[in-house]
Amino acid sequence: MTTDSTATGAALPPSPPLTARQEARRRRILHASARLAGRGGFDAVQMREVAESSDVALGTLYRYFPSKVHLLVATMQDQLQHMHETLRKRPPTEREPGARVAQTLMRAFRALQREPQLADAMVRALTFADRSVSPEVDTVSRLTTAIILDAMGLAGAPTPEQLSAVRVIEHTWHSALITWLSGRASIAQVKIDIETVCRLIDLTAPRQRG
After folding, report:
1. Which end of the chain has fewer CB atoms at under 10 Å, N or C?
2. C-alpha to C-alpha distance for 62 and 71, rounded to whole angstroms
3. Mapping DSSP to helix (H, G, I), strand (E, B) and coil, where does residue 36 land?
């Protein structure tokens, strides 16, 4: 259901920035969500239990996150931000951009592998997300793109063809995560698929003249 402003195409006013106290509360909520999901997956994340675990009122929790899907997609944002910070501190060591991205995505994949219940909960939330969760899903996509672009280590801006390759890599990485979580692909197969698709970055690189 849309409001009159969205129905007429008018932009909604941006949300005011969180105060330090609100940000601390939001972080407690996200940590509680990740902890519960890590123990029991998607079904273990119950809003009342998240509220109790993060020491906030249930009504307050719903003001931050209107549903469990909103909460778990935001949890994935938080996990990706943490991964991005870690990868910036320890950048990939491969020489070619495609190999650098493959190395980075496999490191991220192995981080998720250490907590399969949490990974499954976040991926299920992304799968269940409807239009009301679009801003959060878009943020997840932008963070994934930023991780890939940082890993590429390009001297200049990526070409349109390379950006297209990045989108294909994102889709493949997400699909590989789903097939692994469902038991339909091994880690070895995921690695092959990721390394194969990451070659698109080098294939789409601008040709050197002369």
Report:
1. C
2. 9
3. helix
